[in-house]
Amino acid sequence: MAIEIRARARTSLLKGNTMSRSNLFMSDQLYSYYLESSLREHPVLAELRAETAKMSNSQMQIGPEEGQFLALLVKLIGAKRTLDIGVFTGYSSLAVALALPENGQVIGCDINEQWTETAKKYWEKAGVAHKIQLKLGQASATLENLLDEGDENSFDFIFIDADKKNYPTYYELSLKLLTAGGLIAVDNVFQGGRVADPNVNDGTTVAIRDFNQKVLTDNRVELAMLPIADGLTLIRKI
Ligand code: SAM
Ligand code: CA
Fold first, then answer.
1. Pairing with 16, which of 32, 55, 63, 200 sits 20 to 30 Å away (CA)?
2. Which of 60, 83, 121 to mutate to test ligand 1, by most ligand atoms within 8 A of the CB atom?
3. Pairing between strand 178-187 and 232-237?
């Protein structure tokens, strides 16, 4: 059953709109090989991906290889408290929650009740709902509230994947919420390659370009910008 679901989801991944994600760095053939040779997707994650693939905005979901990478990171750093800024249908929260110890926690931030209803269904199904707390509302307000409640320096890992223009705000608040040595992962820092094209100057592209420059010149952190998915920057708070 699990293998069937995984195979079906993988087929839809290769045929579906996530294909464009692979084209940024790999041929379709290499991307297929990449997944077949490295993906170990939990069956509930695969099911969630199959359900999300039916939605018109399914491209907002992270790819399964990225989820697996986030899960590995969380284990490598021994994270316990984590933040997921931009939940959508819950894939990144679920991938991280599955990697956390039993007493681990994900605080998920989103504004969309309908999409996060789907998320909650799959968190339950995977048996990790007790590790995930959903905060509906503007993510910046949620992060401010956490700081007001005394949560400064208490998070080990933060994934930033919500509205791109607010990345600088999420970054600054995340630096306060993170423990020293804690890790931020920032998604979509390549914007499909548009950040590198000086002729593209729409609001989101410019915002991400400026954000990337801000992190590069920030001596409070160490960084590595990885060519995985749509570009993922790892940022360690010194
Ligand atoms: N990480 C998710 C996953 O693994 O599927 C994908 C996140 S999706 C790219 C971005 C999400 O950010 C959407 O669900 C959207 O509702 C949410 N969002 C957009 N603006 C927001 C805001 N101001 N505050 C909180 N969430 C926001
Ligand atoms: Ca993303």
1. 200
2. 60
3. antiparallel
For the packed helices 113-125 and 43-52, what is the interaxial angle rounded to 10 degrees?
160
DSSP 138: -
Packing angle, helices 91-99 and 113-125, rounded to 10: 30
Q: Specify the 3-state DSSP secondary structure of 114.
A: helix
Please answer whether residues 59 and 49 qualify as being in contact, where contact means their C-beta atoms are separated by less than 8 angstroms: no
Region 60-237: CATH code: 3.40.50.150
- Per-residue pLDDT band at 107 (split at 50, 70, 90): very high
pLDDT band of 1, cuts 50, 70, 90: very low
User: Whole-prediction pTM value?
Assistant: 0.93
Residue 2 above 70 pLDDT?
no
Q: Which ligand is the nearest neighbour of the Cα of 167?
A: 1
* Strand 155-160 versus strand 178-187 pairing type: parallel
* Nearest ligand to residue 83 Cα: 1
- Hey, which of 161, 174, 191, 208 would you mutate to test ligand 1's pocket, going by the most ligand atoms within 8 Å of its Cβ? 161
Give pLDDT tens digits for 16-38: 334 334 558 899 999 999 999 99
Using a 6 Å CB cutoff, which residues line ligand 1? 60-62, 86-89, 91-92, 109-112, 115, 138-139, 161-163, 166
